[in-house]
Design goal:
Elements: E1 2-11, E2 16-24, E3 27-32, E4 42-45, E5 51-54, E6 56-61, H1 74-84, E7 86-91, H2 102-115, E8 119-124, H3 139-142, E9 148-149, H4 159-172, E10 175-178, E11 191-192, H5 195-199, E12 204-205, H6 208-224, E13 227-230, H7 236-247, E14 252-256, H8 258-262, H9 283-295, E15 300-301, H10 316-319, H11 330-339, H12 346-361, E16 376-386, E17 405-415, E18 418-422
Parallel strand pairs: 1-4, 1-5, 6-7, 7-8, 8-9, 10-13, 11-12, 13-14, 14-15
Antiparallel strand pairs: 1-2, 2-3, 5-16, 16-17, 17-18
């Protein structure tokens, strides 16, 4: 297939430049003005206003298969991702069976090979059974398939266990992506232990349950030289610890989610669509995360797309499952709240959602230039729409952004030169 995207504002790192882009054989063939249309199968006119970017990469996605296909499948999750402009996602290991050995990991990759409409890079677990305790997995046996190792949903509780994991991963140059949570500090909590929690007699989760383990792990990463990625940070202390560790030369990167940058516990309602782990923290925490995005402490914005059934999310803050649906709202929410308000530039947002994830996890280059793989999205940054979860492609319909008026829509997703989503 040969594609020609005309009159696009093309991402060039620090700026967007108007150009036509010709794609042949899955590769970007040329950029320029007035590229001839002869021999082209498909032509798209970006009308001097649509932005051509490297496809988004979500390094924290739950596709629920195998084991929980009533929540989401690899097919529906990747279709939702393609609609949103993602060309690659990394899937977390909250599965049954958990990918804690090569045999179990293959059960997931077999489905990926047949059903995924974009690239899917699975995480294997850190511990057997993804318990955060006990025995470590055989890291080397899964190194060729796994994008990294994570016990997401569970923090690795013993320091010696995490030390051993980091030593093993340092030896094979693989990433530990840590869900940081101290079990002994949870005390049955399910939202942030702030003013809303106290006022409405809920059980709270303290910030220390997150940042204490990050502090421990940064010291271990410094000791071992392991590449250490912190999942979904939510507290101001976490930002400070990671900022300091980076200045000390630790190989640490981190992510936060759109909801932590745009919502806080002041926004909570008695509804399961506001329940996730980690929880929405204080306004001060939210501002610290925004500051971390601005100064580069936070590397990546990942969705933590975690779909559940309607029934599982219908039991209020106390009874609902942890997790929200995130792929189809991420760009629009961030564009509306961070870019349109002047907090960051569109170039910065694209870097954090498209380029930096690729750099950290080794998923292509994220450049638009001749010879590069044509993994692309075409974005209308001004399109206004209202979030209605019933229109989601994802099977998960629970979002705290329900009813929000937002700006920004993906129009076209191209994977290795093939159209995998088209809205124009």
């Amino acid at each position: 297939m040969t594609l020609l995207i005309k009159n696009a504002l093309v991402y060039q790192g620090s700026e967007f430049k108007k150009s036509d882009v010709l794609i042949k054989g899955g590769i970007i063939h040329s950029l320029g003005t007035s590229i001839p249309e002869n021999g082209v199968n498909h032509i798209f006119d970006a009308k001097d206003k649509y932005f051509l970017i490297p496809g988004f990469v979500d390094v924290h996605t739950h596709l629920r298969e195998p084991g929980f296909s009533y929540k989401e499948t690899i097919k529906t999750g990747t279709m939702a991702a393609a609609k949103a402009g993602y060309t690659a996602i990394c899937t977390m290991p909250n599965l049954e069976p958990p990918p804690d050995c090569a045999e179990n990991l293959k059960k997931q990759t077999d489905i990926i090979e047949t059903d995924a409409v974009i690239d899917v890079y699975p995480f294997a677990t850190i511990t057997r059974g993804r318990t955060g305790r006990g025995a470590l997995v055989d890291f080397a046996s899964m190194a060729d398939t796994a994008v990294g190792y994570s016990d997401d949903g569970t923090g690795v509780q013993e320091e010696e266990l995490m030390l051993g994991a980091m030593e093993m991963c340092a030896g094979i140059n693989k990433i530990i992506a840590a869900h940081c949570e101290v079990d002994d500090l949870l005390n049955g909590g399910y939202i942030h232990n702030g003013e809303y929690c106290k006022k409405h007699n809920h059980k709270g989760i303290c910030s220390e349950s997150e940042w204490l383990q990050i502090q421990r792990d940064c010291a271990l990463a410094q000791r071992t030289g392991c590449r250490y990625h912190v999942c979904h940070i939510s507290t101001k202390e976490s930002v400070d610890i990671i900022r300091k560790a980076k200045s000390d030369g630790v190989k640490v990167t981190c992510e936060t989610g759109p909801h932590y940058l745009t919502l806080c516990d002041d926004d909570l309602q008695e509804d399961g669509r506001f329940k996730m782990n980690p929880p929405l923290r204080s306004r001060e925490d939210m501002q610290a995360l925004i500051d971390g995005v601005i100064d580069g402490t936070i590397d990546v914005i990942a969705t933590d797309h975690a779909p559940h059934s309607r029934e599982e999310k219908s039991k209020g803050l106390a009874g609902s499952k942890m997790g929200i649906t995130g792929l189809e709202t991420a760009f629009a929410v961030l564009n509306t709240r961070l870019v349109k308000t002047g907090i960051i530039t569109l170039e910065k947002l694209v870097y954090m959602m498209s380029v930096r994830p690729r750099e950290i996890f080794g998923i292509g280059t994220g450049v638009i230039e001749p010879g590069a793989t044509a993994d692309l999205a075409l974005i209308d940054a001004d399109k206004k729409w209202t979030v209605r979860s019933d229109s989601f492609v994802s099977m998960g319909k629970s979002t705290p952004f329900e009813g929000w008026s937002v700006q920004g829509e993906n129009l076209l997703t191209v994977l290795r030169g093939e159209i995998v989503y088209e809205a124009i």
